[in-house]
Write a structure and sequence with these properties.
β10 and β11 form a beta hairpin. The C terminus is likely disordered. Helices cover 24% and strands 34% of the residues. The longest helix has 14 residues. By secondary structure, it is an alpha+beta fold. The protein has 2 domains: 233 residues, P-loop containing nucleotide triphosphate hydrolases (Rossmann fold, 3-Layer(aba) Sandwich), CATH 3.40.50.300; 121 residues, OB fold (Dihydrolipoamide Acetyltransferase, E2P), CATH 2.40.50. A 6-stranded mixed sheet has the order 7-8-9-3-10-11, sandwiched between helices. A 6-stranded mixed sheet has the order 14-13-12-16-22-15. Strands 2-1-4-5-6 form a 5-stranded antiparallel sheet, covered by helices on one side. This is ATP-binding cassette domain-containing protein. Pfam families: ABC_tran, TOBE. Keywords: ATP-binding, Cell membrane, Membrane, Molybdenum, Nucleotide-binding, Translocase, Transport.
Length: 361
């Protein structure tokens, strides 16, 4: 069932006006700075907030219609929520926490336990079944919280900055787990995040929210590759080259890029090479020496950025960028239309799974 929502909220000097649609099995990421309206949007979708005007439908079910004074409360919407903090019941075991949703929905004790065991296994947390939340690490608790959200078989899954509270070691593993689990979801998912990598790895489509308005939307890869707003360009300050995984590398047409595989990948799986423009060197000729990734590009633009110049390039449907000094631009006689090599060390490249199938990410 598809989610369709039109929402207007006015609070003092803040106003949110958003319209969005999410197809069955699709993951929609919502990015925006603090105060943009992301939490307000999520609260309206979950039923915790009644908008001043709007309509929310999931399939044929109307959850909200302000004109007809229809408002389905949260507990009747079938919404699953995974937030920054796991919010597990402290005096229940991990298994009991996960079984809570099925039990609340009317399942018997044995059936709820089987559902909980299955979902703990799905999130690689079956060995944690007997532990209470105080005995779990942050990453372990978030896995249990994900199992709890999914065990209730929600018709809409809401992810509210699910990786924000995890440390640098736990976040990649949890991101990879979410990628694997969401690939098999049949219901729509809305992900609110401040991390562009979450959108790259998890989301089929992306909306950018600024000052309560959606200013950009579309397939994640397209929005991040060619941002129209300054905020989007800033958060998309990473090069993103999509291709397919190939034995610790990324195949992009005739080009093979090597790097650090951030999360487990199967050969042939959609993936992306991610690296910073500052890590890219520009050469007129293909350099020799130590093994490095070399990408043939056509220069499409030069943008002064303080002490550096951002060199925009084009290769296929991708638009990678390099940050170089003004002296390098002069020495290389760079200009739009010139053909050069973008070179980046493998140590500077992270290879991530790429969500989205045909719609890209």
């Amino acid at each position: 069932m598809s989610l369709r929502a039109e929402i207007e909220v006015r609070r003092d000097d803040f106003a949110l006006s958003a319209e969005l649609a999410v197809r069955p099995g699709e993951v929609l990421a919502v990015l925006g700075p603090n105060g943009a309206g992301k939490s307000t949007l999520l609260s309206a979708l979950s039923g915790l907030l009644v908008p001043d005007r709007g309509r929310i439908e999931l399939g044929e079910r109307v959850w909200l219609d302000t004109e007809r004074r229809v408002h389905v409360p949260t507990h009747r919407r079938g919404v699953g929520l995974l937030a920054q903090n796991p919010l597990l019941f402290p005096y229940l075991s991990a298994l009991e926490n996960v079984a809570f949703g099925p039990r609340a929905a009317g399942a018997g004790k044995v059936a709820a336990r089987r559902t909980a065991e299955r979902w703990l296994s799905e999130v690689d947390a079956e060995t944690l079944a007997g532990r209470r939340p105080g005995q779990l690490s942050g990453g372990q608790a978030q896995r249990v919280a994900l199992a709890r959200a999914l065990a209730a078989d929600p018709e809409l899954l809401l992810l509210d900055e699910p990786l924000a509270a995890l440390d640098i070691d736990a976040a990649p593993a949890m991101r990879g787990l979410l990628h694997r689990v969401l690939q098999h979801q049949e219901h729509p998912t809305v992900l609110v995040t401040h991390d562009v990598l979450d959108a790259v790895v998890l989301a089929d489509r992306l909306v950018v929210l600024l000052d309560g308005r959606i200013v950009e939307q579309g397939p994640t890869r397209e929005v991040l590759a060619r941002p129209r707003e300054a905020f989007t360009a800033r958060i998309a300050g990473l090069n993103l080259l999509p291709g397919t995984a190939a034995a610790g590398a990324l195949a992009l047409g005739d080009i093979t890029l090597t790097g650090h595989v951030a999360e487990p990948l199967d050969e042939g799986e959609p993936a992306a090479a991610v690296f910073a423009p500052a890590a890219v060197a520009v050469h007129r000729e293909l350099p020799g020496g130590s093994p490095r990734n070399a990408i043939p590009v056509q220069v499409t633009g030069l943008e002064p950025r303080g002490d550096v110049v951002r060199v925009r390039g084009s290769v296929g449907d991708c638009a990678p960028a390099a940050d170089v000094t003004p002296a390098a631009v002069a020495d290389l006689a760079l200009a739009p239309g010139e053909r050069v090599w973008f070179v980046v060390k493998a140590a500077e490249v992270a290879i991530h799974p790429l969500s989205g199938g045909s719609s890209g990410a």
